[in-house]
Amino acid sequence: MTAWEPLLAKLAETPRENGTAALHATARFLFETLERAGLDVALVRFDAQPFALRLAGVLALVGGLLYWRLLRVGRAHAALGVAVAVPLLLLAQLEWQLPVFGRIGAESQDHVLARKPALKAEQRLILAAHYDTKTDALDHVERAPVDYLALPVIPLMLAGALAAIGAARRPQRPRWISRLVSAAAWSAAVYGIASFVALSAGAFVRARSPGALDDGAACAVLVRVAEELAGRPALARTDVEVLLLSAEEVGVQGSWAYAEQRFGSPPEIPTYVVNLEGIGASSELAVLGSERFTLRSFEPNARLVALLDASYRASFGKPLEVTAFGGATDARSFLAHGIPAATLVSHEPGRRLPRGLHSVRDSRSRLDQAALDASVAYLLALVASADANGI
Description:
With 391 residues, this protein is α/β, with parallel strands linked by helices. It folds into 2 domains: 5-50 and 105-135 and 207-389, Aminopeptidase, CATH 3.40.630.10; 54-99 and 140-204, no CATH class. It contains 11 helices and 10 strands. Helix 3 (52-72) runs antiparallel to helix 4 and helix 9 packs across helix 11 (369-389).
């Protein structure tokens, strides 16, 4: 049994939000812990925008209400401009990681990278998790309808503005156009308010999430895996890296910056990423069936899934599930840059989907220490299998 107390006290009890002193203190703690184990450890610095999602919610709110007002006072051309500009700005920030909000609140943050070099490196296996936390007003399930609401609302906003422009040339507006314009105006206002609640209202929640399942326990597991590897002989052909990321909770900014910087061109050896999310609820693990941005979706790498499944069968005597639902984790940053990746999650007993994440309910009481031990053993077996059989 592993002594989890020192790690969980730091990674499952204290909020570690982007842009806070607690986040930087956690990076130092992780760096020093891994360095004491004798690993080659580095802090990888990047520029983060800790308030990007909060500002995106404000932009959606202002845009929705402005569109509503412009249609109400008959300024259809201006409303059309809002209907085009606001979604494009949100996509630029959230889909393509372009700095729409410039340097507002920007600051330097760190990833923590520990390496265990092989005797003769022929492949690289990166084990990743994120150590930052976030507090929202809604959890993943409650927020899902807001995410999907954009699909009908944006076309409706465009149609409403265009219909209002066309109707201005007629002596009398047909009733169906009036209804379309009214529906578009009110839909935009509702969508703006809902997006603000989903993206921004968490800033006003007093009790902050300690991020035990999302994703502190996974970081604790990877620290223990790294410490075990540090005490063992080097693998024959597999470089193993433990990558602890920040800025996942602000639109995967951190992993996107890391993948863009390191894998802007193809890596010198085949590289694979196993990302961990929600580990520690139980030893019932699964692979996320897809990784989604707004416009793009990626499937987990088939070779990685086969490796994960083979090791899971050997460790637990049953196949590894690939979920019917997808996620929006750091794995998508690597997949978008051409690096094979897959995300492992754990099933909380009695639930198919985790609830209460990004809230004070994501506490240490949800963790099963036996499951943490089992996850460490499974990942060590995975590393050994990858080295022996290749990926």
